[in-house]
Design a protein that fits this description.
Structural class: alpha/beta
CATH class: Alpha Beta
Shape: globular
CATH architecture: 3-Layer(aba) Sandwich
Strand order of the largest sheet: 1-4-5-3-2
Strand content: 15-25%
CATH topology: Mannitol-specific EII, Chain A
Radius of gyration: 14 Å
Distance between the termini: 13 Å
CATH superfamily: Mannitol-specific EII, Chain A
Order of helices and strands: HEHHEEEEHHH
Helix content: 40-55%
Number of helices: 6
Largest sheet: 5 strands, mixed
Number of domains: 1
Length: 145
């Protein structure tokens, strides 16, 4: 399944989010995945704990954050969640990001090879990033993807 299909299936696209607390953004991103049985709540807690311990290594220069944790931290099924913030925020001591894609993978191989590569392929396109940032409705995000 593609990121687009997984986002739609999980009902996990949130647009125009106004939040300044990075922990709450991670919780918001996780909420539809927890509610729909893709991850346990322990997963997003692990993401927050990892960030506090190791920094926000998942924030990239392009204003994209890809928070994640190890599969054994509570992943039930491979999943993605997207949160588009109105204003960029810093995650712990990182650069700022306004496109947040939380993902969970059921095993380490999928975690690295499929999850991160799929996200990078999706977002390695400046016009697409600009269109995502301008989107006002989740349906627009689906069309862009």
């Amino acid at each position: 399944m593609t990121i687009k299909q997984l986002l739609i299936e999980a009902g996990a696209i949130q647009v125009g989010v106004q939040e300044t607390d990075w922990k709450k953004v991670i919780e918001l991103a996780a909420r539809p995945l927890v509610e729909n049985g893709y991850i346990h709540a322990s997963y997003y807690q692990a993401v927050i704990s990892n960030t506090l311990a190791h920094g926000a290594y998942y924030v990239f220069d392009e204003g994209i954050a890809i928070p994640h944790a190890r599969p054994e931290c509570g992943v039930i099924k491979n999943c993605f969640s997207m949160v588009l913030l109105e204003q960029p925020i810093a995650f712990e001591d990182s650069e700022e990001a306004d496109i947040v894609i939380l993902f969970g993978a059921t095993d380490s191989n999928s975690h690295i090879e499929e999850g991160i590569r799929a996200i990078v392929d999706l977002l390695d396109n400046k016009p697409r990033l600009e269109r995502l940032r301008a989107a006002k409705l989740w349906q627009e995000v689906v069309e862009i993807l």
